[in-house]
Amino acid sequence: MRLIADTHVHIYPFYDTKLALHSLRTNLSQLDSQAVCMLFLAERSDCHFFADFAKNTAKLFNPESTIRYLKDALHIQESGYPDLYIFPGRQIITRERIEILSLTVDTQIADGLPANELVEKIRQHQGVPVLSWAPGKWFFKRKKIVRELIDTNDPGSLLIGDTSLRPTCWLQPRLMKRAASKGLTIISGSDPLPFAGEEQLLGQYGIQLDCDFDPDDPVSSVRSILSQPQYQPSLMGKRGNLLTTFRRLFKNNRAKKG
Fold first, then answer.
1. DSSP structure class, residue 198
2. Which of 116, 144, 160, 202 is deepest in the core (most CB within 10 A)?
3. Which domains does the chain have, with CATH numbers?
4. Of the given ranges (60-64, 72-76, 115-119, 141-145), which has the lowest mean pLDDT?
5. pLDDT at residue 257 above 90?
6. For residues 258 and 111, which has the higher predicted lDDT (pLDDT)?
7. What is the per-residue pLDDT across 151-184, written as a single tens digit (0 to 9) for each?
8. What is the spatial distance between Cα 137 and Cα 115, in angstroms, rounded to a whole number?
9. 230, 155 Cβ separation under 8 angstroms
10. H-helix or E-strand containing 55?
11. d(Cα 99, Cα 111) in Å, to the nearest integer?
12. Cα 38–40–41 angle (5° rounding)?
């Protein structure tokens, strides 16, 4: 089965959620019109879209839509759109101020743990740990921590996350190349920022997978797929140019101050 996925999605409480889901499915289907769509959440500690989903279905979908509540995942069929699977997940900030995602689980893990301890705790909760690239987060003192994580984790046990916030003029970082050469899986996602309007970017950058997939047990399936040693899905879609990225970061900084 062919799958197309955005593996780094935030849906903040102030987003237009209906627009977010529309944008995700539309943008992903433009990358591959024949693929089943997937959304991997990376929620901050103050966000609970997955946990609160059932409360909001009437506002998000038409009455004829089919929503299946599977084990730790959602399957949505709506007229005019491709099938969509939604997986829970968390974004956690380590003591060293590095972003690590815990995909396929909604377990709350407190920020502030050392990076290596956090990766192990995510595995203990059956999540898929992803070391996420972010502007400025892999430099200086943190560079050593990122390199140690890459060097001390075997292929399949830690994924590396690229995002649309890496400008097109920014070549693949050396540490990301190091991870790929070591056999660590590289995935990608939109990583929308916390201000209104960013929800339209969902699905513009992601991964394509051609694999066996069990639609009745999607969580076990994707965990198995993503945790295959030396597995490398196709990165699909687009990142912003330098000006676009600068504008996004500027608006994000202004939103924080406001």
1. G
2. 202
3. 2-257 (3.20.20.140)
4. 60-64
5. no
6. 111
7. 999 999 999 999 999 999 999 999 999 999 999 9
8. 13
9. yes
10. helix 53-60
11. 10
12. 140
What's the first-to-final CA gap in the chain, in angstroms? 45
pLDDT interval class at 258 (50, 70, 90): low
Contact between 206 and 190 under an 8 Å Cβ cutoff? The reply is: yes
CB count within 10 Å of CB 82 equals 18
| pLDDT above 90: percentage of residues in the chain | 89
Biggest CA-to-CA distance, the chain: 53
Of the candidates 3, 70, 84, the residue with the CA atom closest to the CA atom of residue 39 = 84
Tokens 């590396």 belong to: 160
SS3 at position 69: strand
In this predicted structure, what is the pLDDT of residue 50? 95
* Burial degree of 48 (CB within 10 A; 0-12, 13-18, 19+): middle
Is 221 strand, coil or helix?
helix
Query: Comparing C-alpha atoms, which of 183, 144, 136 is closest to residue 160?
Result: 183
The tokens for 158 are 């830690």
Query: Hey, is 107 helix, strand or coil?
Result: coil
Separate counts of helices (H) and strands (E) for the chain: 7, 12
DSSP states of 6-26: EEEE---TTS-HHHHHHHHHH
Distances 47 to 6, 9, 65, 72, 215 between C-alpha atoms, Å: 18, 12, 25, 17, 27
